[in-house]
Amino acid sequence: MKKELSISAIKDGTVIDHIPSNATLKVADILDLKGIRGIISIATNLTSKTMGKKGLVKISGKDLTKEEVDKIALIAPNATVNIINNYNVKKKIKVTIPLVINKIIKCSNPNCIINNEEISTKFYVLNKDPLKVKCHYCERNMDKEDISLL
Ligand code: CTP
Ligand code: ZN
User: Fold this and answer.
1) Alpha-carbon gap, residue 130 to 145, rounded angstroms
2) DSSP per-residue codes, 31-52
3) What is the dihedral sign for C-alpha 18, 24, 26, 29?
4) Which of 81, 111, 118, 146 has the fewest C-beta atoms lying within 10 Å of its C-beta?
5) Using CA atoms, how far apart are residues 93 and 79, in angstroms rounded to an integer?
C-alpha cells in the first residue's frame, strides 16, 4: 500500500505557495472562501528546499482579488500566487507589499477618525521589512506588532 499521498494538482484556480508554515492558516483565514464549491487544500509543515518548512493553500475555482493578494503580502511577504488554467501554471505572481495600503489594515489609535467614522483606512508604507506603516489620517506610525487586518 502506498503510504504517502501528495496534495493533488488542481485543474483551475489558485495556488498560494511559499507561505511561512506558521502563517498558513492566517492566509486561508483572510481569503473569502465562503461559497467556493471546488476543493480547498491547506497544508503546513511541508519540506521546502529554500524555506525549511512552508505552507500551501490550493483553491479550485477561485481567482484572488488585488486586495486579497495585497493582504497575503502583509502576512507572507515571500509567497507566490500561481494562477492555474487547465492544469498549467498560467501566471506566477510574487506578492509585493504596496506603497499605499488601502482598506486592509486597522489603525491602532482609538482616537483616529477612521475608528470613529465610516471611512476607508489608508496607510503609507515607511518600511517593508520589518513592516512599518503610517496612518494617513492621524499620522500614527505602526510596526508589525501593532498591525492587525480588517
Ligand atoms: N500546482 C497545482 N496544480 C497544478 C499546477 C501546479 O497545485 N495543476 C502547484 C504546484 O504543486 C506548486 C505550485 O502550484 O505548489 C506552482 O507550480 P510550479 O510552478 O509547477 O512549481 P515550482 O516550479 O516548484 O514553483 P516555484 O518555482 O514557484 O517554486
Ligand atoms: Zn489613524
Assistant:
1) 10
2) S--TT--S-EEEEEEEEETTTE
3) positive
4) 118
5) 9
Q: Whose CA is nearest to atom 7 of ligand 1?
A: 9
Question: Which tens digits make up the pLDDT trace of 105-126?
Answer: 999 999 999 999 999 999 999 9
Overall average pLDDT of the 45-56 stretch? 93
pLDDT tens for 140-149 read: 999 988 988 8
Q: Is the CB of 72 under 6 A from ligand 1?
A: no
CA of 52 relative to ligand 1 center, distance in Å: 17
Q: Which residues are CB-contacts of 131 (< 8 A; sequence separation ≥ 6)?
A: 74, 97, 125, 143, 144, 147
User: Is this prediction's pTM over 0.85?
Assistant: yes
Task: Report whether 26 contacts 8 (CB < 8 A).
Answer: no
The three grid cell numbers given for residue 101, joined into one nine-digit string: 495600503
Which of 19-44 are b and which e, b meaning 16 or more Cβ less than 10 Å from the residue's Cβ?
Answer: bbbebbebbbebbeeeeeeeebebeb
The four Cα atoms 69, 70, 75, 80 give a dihedral, to 10 degrees, of: 40
The three-state secondary structure class of 21 is helix
